[in-house]
Amino acid sequence: MSKKSDKKEIKQFLIFDIAEKKFTIELDYINEIGEYIDIMFVPRAKEYVLGVINLRGIIVPIISLRRRFKLEDDQITKETGIVYIKKNGVMYGLIVDKIEGIEKISSDKVGEVPKIFKENIDIAYFKGMFELNKQKIIILNTDSIFE
Hey, where are the domains in the chain? Predict the structure, then answer.
C-alpha cells in the first residue's frame, strides 16, 4: 500500500500569454473565459485596474496583469482575452494577450519558482511552475493578484 504523499494528483490548467511569457491558473479557480470587450474607465482606480464591464448584469472589475506585473502596457489585439475569476464573492476579469489552451499536469511535474527567475516581477504572484513542450510555464497565485 502506498503512502498518501506518493499519490500524484492531476490538475487542469488554463495556459495563456502575457508579454510573450507563458502563465497559467488552475482551472478550478476560473469561472469563464471570454473575448476582450470594451472596458469602461473608472476614475481613481488602482493603476492595474483598467475599469469595469457589465457581464450579464454583473459589474466586473478588469485587471491588467501586464500593469500588475509592472510590464509594458496592454496591446489589445484580436487574440486578447479575459479570464474571469471569482474571489471573495467578487467576479474579476484578467486581461491576457492570448489564450493557449487547457493542459492536464501531474502534481509531481509542478515545482517551486526559483527566486532568480523573477525577472522584475514580484515572486509573490507565483505559485509554482512546470515545463511543457520545453517552455517554462508559471502558475499564478490568484490570492496575490487581487491584494
Answer: 10-145
DSSP 24: E
Three-state DSSP class for residue 58: strand
3-class secondary structure for 66-112?
HHHCCCCCCCCCCCCEEEEEEECCEEEEEEECEEEEEEEEEHHHCEC
Q: Which amino acid is at 146?
A: F
Fold of 10-145: OB fold (Dihydrolipoamide Acetyltransferase, E2P) (2.40.50)
Residue 42: CB atoms within 10 A of its CB come to: 14
Q: What pLDDT, on the 0 to 100 scale, is given for residue 144?
A: 77
Q: Which residues of the chain have pLDDT under 50?
A: 1-3, 120
Confirm if 87 and 56 have CB atoms less than 8 A apart: no
The terminus-to-terminus CA distance of the chain in angstroms comes to 43
Determine the pLDDT at residue 2. Answer: 44
- Residue range 90-129, pLDDT digits in tens: 999 999 999 999 999 988 888 876 666 555 456 677 888 8
Q: What is the Cα–Cα distance from 93 to 5, expressed in whole angstroms?
A: 35
